[in-house]
Amino acid sequence: MGIRQTSGRGRLYDSVLDTVGDTPAIRINRIAPKNVTVYVKFEAFNPAGSVKDRLALNIIEAAERDGRLKPGQTVVEATSGNTGIGLAMVCAAKGYPLVVTMAESFSVERRKLMRFLGAKVVLTPKEKKGFGMYQKAKELAEANGWFLASQFETPDNADMHASTTAREILGDFDGQRLDYIVTGYGTGGTVSGIGRVLKAERPDVKLILTEPANAAIVGSGYVNTRNEDHQPTEGHPHFQPHPIQGWTPDFIPWVLQETLDKGYHDELIPVAGPDGIAWSKRLAAEEGIFTGISGGSTFAISMKIAETAPEGSVILCMLPDTGERYLSTPLFEGVAEEMTEEEIALSQSTPGYQMG
After folding, report:
1. Known catalytic residue: 52?
2. What is the full DSSP assignment across 41-110?
3. What is the C-alpha separation between 326 and 313, in angstroms, rounded?
4. Per-residue pLDDT in tens (0 to 9) along the chain, 356 residues
5. What is the CATH number of domain 52-148?
6. Which fold has domain 16-45+160-332?
7. Alpha carbon 310 to chain centroid distance?
8. Which of 41, 52, 129, 136 is catalytic?
9. Residue partners of 241: CB distance under 8 A and separation at least 6
């Protein structure tokens, strides 16, 4: 085989926003069991590095279309990071001020990324969890007349996944076998959007949902109370802090409720945070695919499904983001900053250019 060649995408882009979506489905070659074929839909290929670029774009553009968002109006949202980063990109490109509320427990690099993109970040106490940052965003919106993005309630979230993510999957696997799709949830937009389309057009595909084992709020059977705007009015009593940032706030979002009410998912399998970390590391070191803890956790369940899947099954695993926004989290514990003993030995194996 000769040198790889590329020829461009055949188009020019008017805005970074036009590059959202059309993320690749990539085959896993070294760590997947031989009895199945595993692909990952790698959402880090979105311009701001995560699946949340999709909903961020549609929330803003839908609100522009129907007049809910006025020119120059400040946008405010509660987020663990990825939605905030996506909104910061969209707002920067369109000229809207953005204020993000975020619990102080989420990674520092997420705050820096949002601020780098021009947003203001208001931190809330970690003991108040996701519900606290959510309530702070509501307070700020009501007090200032700002546009609340409402990622957890707005139909613009799952609608975007139905019109893009699900359609990409159908297109990429057109005429191809596909037996399982595995995904976690934050807002529930991905699973509700995919489920809405796949259950209608490829009902043979099993949709597997996963959540943190120590914050299994869907698995608990209890649905938190909501007000008439579908906003949560309490934190979920079965929630516990977990390391899978971006997954499972301490309430069941209204967007996810569509999946639960209509039975889009065929199975719910919890995952332990350490398993997600371990598989994220393996994806990076053995496949060259650099995803975060949420991606590793989804992949962990894909590997669990593979253990009992029929011979020849095809599994598609959603990878929500890049690993770069986890540098200060347990994902990178044990990754040395200075040279290891082995690296020092390599340096000393030749005479020149050694560190003092």
Report:
1. yes
2. EEGGGSTTSBTHHHHHHHHHHHHHHHTSS-TTPPEEEE-SSHHHHHHHHHHHHHT--EEEEEETTS-HHH
3. 32
4. 799 999 999 999 999 999 999 999 999 999 999 999 999 999 999 999 999 999 999 999 999 999 999 999 999 999 988 999 999 999 999 999 999 999 898 889 999 999 999 999 999 998 988 889 989 999 999 999 999 999 999 999 999 999 999 999 999 999 999 999 999 999 999 999 999 999 999 999 999 999 999 999 999 999 999 999 999 999 999 999 898 988 988 899 999 999 999 999 999 999 999 999 999 999 999 999 999 999 999 999 999 999 999 999 999 999 999 999 999 999 999 999 999 999 999 999 999 999 87
5. 3.40.50.1100
6. Rossmann fold (3.40.50)
7. 28
8. 52
9. 105, 129, 215
Instruction: Point out the catalytic residue in the list 50, 280, 294, 297.
Output: 294
How far apart are the C-alpha atoms of 292 and 43, rounded to whole Å? Answer: 11
Q: Which amino acid is at 47?
A: P
Which letter does DSSP use for residue 321 in this model?
B
* Secondary-structure breakdown of the chain: helix, strand, coil percentages, each rounded to the nearest 5: 45, 15, 40
Tokens read off for 93: 């490109």
Task: Please check whether the two domains, 16-45+160-332 and 52-148, share a CATH topology.
Answer: yes
Q: Where are the domains of the chain?
A: 16-45+160-332, 52-148
Question: 183 is written with which tokens?
Answer: 């995904």
What phi, psi does 27 have (nearest 5°)?
Answer: -75, 140
Q: Kindly list the distances between the CA atom of residue 177 and the CA atoms of 164, 198, 314, in Å, as whole numbers in the listed order.
A: 20, 14, 6
Element of type H or E holding 14: none
CB 302 within 8 A of CB 243: no
Q: Cα(167)–Cα(190) distance, rounded to whole angstroms?
A: 12
- DSSP designation for 246: T
136 classed as catalytic: no
